[in-house]
Amino acid sequence: MQIEKIAVIGAGVMGGSIAAHMANAGKQVVLLDIAPKDASNRNIVAESAIQKLLKMNPAPFMHKSFAKRIQTGNLEDHLDYLSDCDWIIEAVIEDLDIKTDLYKKIDTTRKRGSIISSNTSTIPLSMLVEKQSDAFQQDFLITHFFNPPRYMRLLELVKGTKTKTEHMKVIEAFCDIELGKGCVQCFDSPGFIANRIGTFWIQTAMINAMDQGITVEEADAVLGRPMGVPKTGVFALVDLVGLDLMPHISKSLLSTLPKDDAYCKTYRDVDLFKKMISDGYTGRKGKGGFYRLDPEAKGKKVKQAIDLKTGHYHDAVRPSIPLIKTARKLGLPHLLGDEGKIGQYAWSVISQILSYAANLVGEIAESVYDIDQAMKLGYNWKMGPFELIDKIGVAWFRDRLLKSDMAVPKILSDIGDQTFYKIEDGNQFFFGLDGKYHAIERPTGVELLSDIKLTKEPLEKNASASLWDVGDDIVCLEFTSKMNALDEEIMTMIAKAVKLVGSDKNAYKALVVHNEGTHFSAGANLGLALFALNLGMWMQVEEIVAGGQRAYHKLKYAPFPVIAAPSGMAIGGGCEILLHCDAVMAHAESYIGLVETGVGLIPGWGGCKEMLARYANDPKRAKGPMPAVSGVFEMVATAQVAKSAYEAFDMLYLRRGIDEVVMNKDRLLFKAKEKALEMVKTYEVPTPHEYKLPGDTGRTALNMGVDGFVKRGLATPHDVTVGGKLAYVLSGGKTDHLETLTEKDILKLEVSTFMELVKTAPTLDRIEHMLTTGKPLRN
Fold this sequence. Notes:
It is a single chain. The chain is of the alpha/beta class. Helices cover 44% and strands 13% of the residues. It has four domains: 5-186, NAD(P)-binding Rossmann-like Domain (Rossmann fold, 3-Layer(aba) Sandwich); 194-431, N-(1-d-carboxylethyl)-l-norvaline Dehydrogenase, domain 2, CATH 1.10.1040.50; 449-595 and 641-680, 2-enoyl-CoA Hydratase, Chain A, domain 1; 600-636 and 687-779, no CATH class. It is globular, with a radius of gyration of 28 Å. The protein has an eight-stranded mixed β-sheet. Strands 15-16-17-18-19-21-23 form a seven-stranded mixed β-sheet, sandwiched between helices.
């Protein structure tokens, strides 16, 4: 069965966002909701939802044009729209009677064998289908998307006693490959996996902080990065999702969980939280939450945190906790075993969370692996509960539970001195409830560099990059620096990669540029550059720029295919490396752009050269030198970044017919290898581009455009300087439209202009400000 047309019933924020992501996958979508009484437009609810989605930030659509793939309607007039849908998703209010009545209507109009699912996270599947026909029950399952559906990878799948196995396989494959989801099968239990454990984690952390006199800043510092949790920790996470959401989740869990469940035993209402909600302090979507911006700061952004005892706000402080720093070196037991206030708080939360998860294996999911995956995908934890126990030490954790007079979960006793995960004969295994180890099986088409690294040594390695044999006679170049920032070590490794793969002594056929970091590359290492600039090491800086150009040139003209496989940010130099590859297999959530003007520079590693060539060859643009130059200038001068891989095609960072989009980042390496092997068969080294650029005339026109921005207050004095230098490079320097320039000519212009800018005080200020604050300076 193929999923081609999908219906979503319920056009609220969640239902609308699910519909948007189905459209992102290229599917035709039907979005239905109620027809308001006496409304002149009976489709107004669904139509308004689309308009809201188009204005939302972060955007539910990967490209605004995808909204056209959604057909709107209402539940009274357009139930017949369901008759040719392959999958019908219910996302209406969490009311059993409303859902039950809706299902009976759906069953009368849907085509036989179509799949129906609910996005519920609170009502058991058994209750949802209790009054439905056998045929309906066979076609029904739960697909619990995490919000926002485009960005959160977790999809929890729940089947009923009568659900067809084939339907589960179809939905799981579709959501994995075409929606980019990490699918985890759960048992039909309250809260499923992620919300069951995650809500208990949040509640325990918040209540214990109040009881133990821990500030919100301290709690987030302790329960954030040290535990492999995003830096939001707990309180900032609640601000992100909305404090007003928590009572609804709690009400559901309290009504469905056994009274002896740890969640029910520890839950309590908190007057402060009630008051915050009633006063509008529900988090980022409200006036603030546990954190807020000082309303009396007169235009300045002063972050404040709430005092959990008094309810008053104070200027937020970053707590200095030496215990956390030493725990990085000595291990988590050093933190969890400390008898001080911070250690006791950390242990009081982590001990309960990990014990709770251990007691739920077999009740909420089949394995420890499923639980770990759900928490990593749903809450962005770097380690799931059982991976965290392994890191702490199973024996140490079990002994500490006993010393704390806490019950030891059965699985922690059964495992003895072993670990929950192990590697054997190149395969990964997890400990099962049967006391045996079971292999972790990846779906066909999923290849992870992290798996390869468990059993292989790198072909080459330095402080910032590595080369790996990833099979099929292909080498992978991996960046390993902080934020995968590009430096001389990476440029050196690029040269080694080209030499290694291109050597007649080796059987390698192609190179893939890929890593599994949060971001492909945040650009050049500005910290190292600023250090050299402050010492006046101009020659060294110029060599860094020229060295990058040489390295990228080698990639472009290597005698074999070079395929980039980015995910996350690929900006500045990270974007430029994509521009020099033969093809790009981009994760849909790739954010690509040349952003150098934000730090007072221009692209110096061939970005100007490559974009000029792409715009000149673009069939949609008028011929002649000026259309290409003006197009590149507008984009680079304003540091435009594509907010998805699909947007990158419009900006020519990606090329239609050559580059491709991959929805699931776990499939990037496999798809890049597949592309490389396909290109090997007929590969030819690209022909260098020749340039006809407008010279002084074009530069004057571009500078007039900058003057217009100045008059409108949209450009600062240094923007004018940087814009002028960029215009000089893109127009070809001291040339005219009759001359033919080579790639080498444009690269020389990039280097000389780059060096002129780095010697200006405003550019140095911009670089320093970016390194200090992470934000551009408008000077």
